[in-house]
Amino acid sequence: MKKLNFLLVTLVPTFVFAQESQKIDSGNTAWLIVATALVMLMTPAGLALFYGGMTRSKNILNTIGMSFLAYCVASAVWVLWGYTLAFGTDVSGIIGSLEHVFLTGISVNDVWSTGNIPTLLFVAFQMTFAAITVALVSGSVIERMKFQFWLLFVILWITVVYAPIAHWVWGGGFLAKLGALDFAGGTVVHINAGVAGLVLALLLGKRVDYGKKAILPSSVVLTVVGAVLLWFGWFGFNAGSELAADGIAANAFLVTNTAAAFGAISWMITEWLVAKKPTMLGAASGVVAGLVAITPAAGFVDLSGSIVIGIVSGILGFVGVYWLKKKLGYDDSLDAFGVHGLNGIWGAIATGIFANPSVNQAGKGLLYGNPSQVLIQIEAVLATIVYTAVMTAILYFVVSLFTKGARVDEETEIRGLDETVHGERGFEL
Description:
Oligomer: single chain
Shape: globular
Radius of gyration: 22 Å
Strand order of the largest sheet: 1-2
Largest sheet: 2 strands, antiparallel
């Protein structure tokens, strides 16, 4: 009897502790609900306006529609099968199992251990990441892609490109086991989207009047407003990725704002020196460049690291948009690769350089005695580039079989996709 009492006294506290550790944390949950709403705002509002303002008026609705519908389609794919492929039980380090198809087996009382938030909230938070990633790709191909091709491509790309890479990095896959650092999506989101956009742009070909006449944005005002909305939503994107309302989230919030500001300043100064004019389109693009570059590093670097990351991002973005694209001669319409791809690569490698263990013990970079982290980051970057490029190209040809090609005819392109595809106008002139 004494032994039984001893066992009960010993085990009951452990049992109670285990139960309490799975209790939903109301503070973290409240913050993640807000963060999820912030990231949601980024795609059908922020990105749609940012991209829409940069396109010509005859294509503005189609451009906005590509982001808007990407969010809708991605939301459906994610809850049906995307989530389980990304975060289901690991299968050989490559993909998640199908145990949670249609979110089977996840109840309202299930708790995601990191942050002790409802698992369903984690599902929703990650859904917004999948949506904006594929929407970013559209920036490379606007003004010439068939709308039906785009919708089918979104379904397949999330399934066979985004979900596996998310699993590699965040779902317990081989890059996570390798020790790759990606706090909020430099590799999973921005390199992934930038490379996919470049591949599609190369396969689709240039717009009919590209390089023959000036292609002017319909509204820089809309683009600047879109950039501000993206900046605002990015606080949820980066600080929310901590999955808790704590010091690391606060640090992520601060360094996100800092890198964005320095990205805008460095892009503006570079453009001013080279092109002799400080354009607001350049400043807005610099903000996004800084946000992209700090994304993988936000939960690992301190203020000084974020300043360097931001300054380099603006210069790199300008070089990608105004020099590299012209040098190589590809038509990346709204510079998804120049801004997101290049700065995603820079941000991922910079994380391996500047990750400060005093900010987050999970990350220790080159400057703090761990040069191997840079090599791990480069390996993750290369794995993502190769997989994304190959699979995006395959999907291009597969989807083209069902839509009789990916590109609209020349007459449709010249008249504009708003009227010919949607029967509407963005502006009544």
